[in-house]
Write a structure and sequence with these properties.
Blueprint (H helix, E strand, L loop, with lengths): L7 H7 L1 H9 L18 H5 L3 E6 L1 H18 L3 E5 H4 L10 E7 L5 H12 L3 E6 L5 H5 L2 E4 L12 H20 L5 H12 L1 H10 L2 H9 L5 E6 L3 H16 L2 E6 L16 E5 L9 H14 L3 E7 L11 E5 L8 H18 L18
Parallel strand pairs: 1-2, 1-3, 3-4, 4-5, 6-7, 6-8, 8-9, 9-10
Bound molecules: fructose -6-phosphate.
Function: Catalyzes the first step in hexosamine metabolism, converting fructose-6P into glucosamine-6P using glutamine as a nitrogen source.
Keywords: Aminotransferase, Cytoplasm, Glutamine amidotransferase, Repeat, Transferase
Protein name: Glutamine--fructose-6-phosphate aminotransferase [isomerizing]
């Protein structure tokens, strides 16, 4: 049932092209308009959304971070992302024009469920992005957008993460369409880019031998840092979480801009630092600022490992190792840049002889608060 792979995790990493494809499937009509009728919330109500609060835990919360960048950019609706277990305890500001979007693979995470219930009591509309059909969170929400990524067996989330991000993009584009915030052609172009993602993920999977070799060579490393900026920031957090969960290595993700405000003090000779580099075609100066960060840590002895867009030759000079991912539009990059980090964590843990499907102390679905 592992489909010839050594673990469910490897199988699920390799299923990601299909998972993303299935999340996108059947959500546009013949004219290219997004059709999320399944949402069951009156489009007029959705149109009046004045604020979005994304609630989730762990990996799902990182998908929420990515969603914030995309939805704010496309829809001009303010988006807050909050860990579900923090939400109820801070007297959040909610009204009937607040859309609370929960993200959960299992649909049973108690922290997320309790936060959704609280939001509902306070009068918010609730929308669930979820992978598990008929689970509690979607049942208790006003609307649901299912991932259709297929069952995820390994405790550490991989394909559900990419599917959550893809579903968040669909939601963002749908809201932009309802509100007339983007031109039809713009939405069509972004959807076309999204539909090209599965083949690009496949390309990364097909050339993953170098990442696995690096992981094997690094099996005794005591600590790994991950830097990212813009949508690469949540990817860095996810890369660090995967390594903690699977390989029990101290790993931390930072916003690259935060480096000089503290974390750079951690850099010493041979400290491995992964850098998720933004697209050179994205926002002005973002790329060059991150390239400067690579130089800064390298000058202090770090072993720099970069994940960059194909053709981004500026990073080569300052990187010990570079993993290139295919080009896509800057906001969609997490669907690609996450993959090498998952492969890295999985291969490193396997090399250490750990059970990657059932890491110690963790459960697939956390049904206690
Ligand atoms: C990370 C991981 C956890 C879950 C979190 C939320 O690999 O598995 O961080 O992402 O417990 O779970 P769901 O998505 O089921 O609500």
């Amino acid at each position: 049932e592992k489909g010839g792979y050594d673990s469910f995790m490897e199988k699920e990493i390799n299923e990601q092209p299909k998972a993303v494809e299935d999340t996108l499937l059947g959500r546009t009509d013949a004219s290219g308009q997004l059709t999320l009728d399944e949402l069951r919330i009156d489009p007029e109500e959705l149109k009046n959304t004045s604020k979005i609060i994304v609630l989730a835990c762990g990996t799902a919360a990182y998908a929420g971070h990515v969603a914030k960048y995309a939805i704010e950019h496309w829809c001009r609706i303010p988006v807050e992302v909050e860990l579900a277990h923090e939400f109820r305890y801070r007297d959040p500001i909610i009204d009937e024009n607040t859309l609370v979007v929960s993200i959960s693979q299992s649909g049973e995470t108690m922290d997320t469920l309790m936060a959704v219930r609280y939001a509902k009591e306070q009068g918010a509309r609730t929308l669930s992005i979820c992978n598990t059909n008929g689970s509690t969170i979607p049942r208790e929400s006003d609307a649901v957008l299912y991932l259709h990524a297929g069952p995820e067996i390994a405790v550490a989330s991989t394909k559900a993460f990419l599917a959550m991000i893809a579903a968040s993009y669909l939601l963002g584009l749908y809201l932009a369409q309802l509100r007339g915030q983007l031109f039809r052609e713009e939405i069509k172009d972004i959807l076309a880019d999204l539909h090209k993602i599965p083949a690009k993920i496949q390309k990364i999977l097909d050339s993953s031998e170098d990442i696995k070799a690096l992981a094997r060579a690094m099996k005794d490393t005591p600590s790994v840092l991950f830097l990212g900026r813009h949508v690469g920031f949540p990817v860095a957090l996810e890369g660090a979480l995967k390594l903690k969960e699977l390989a029990y290595i101290h790993a931390e993700g930072f916003a690259a801009g935060e480096l000089k405000h503290g974390p750079i003090a951690l850099i010493e000779q041979d400290q491995p630092v992964f850098v998720v580099v933004p697209s050179p075609r994205g926002r002005d100066s973002l790329h060059s600022k991150v390239v400067s960060n690579i130089q800064e840590v390298r000058a202090r002895g770090a072993k720099t490992i970069t994940v960059a867009e194909a053709g981004d030759d500026a990073v080569r000079e300052f990187s010990e190792t570079v993993f290139f991912v295919p080009e896509t539009s800057p906001l969609l990059m997490p669907l690609l840049t996450t993959v090498p980090l998952q492969i890295f964590a999985c291969a490193l843990a396997a090399e250490k002889g750990y059970d990657v499907d059932q890491p110690r102390n963790l459960a697939k679905s956390v049904t206690v608060e």
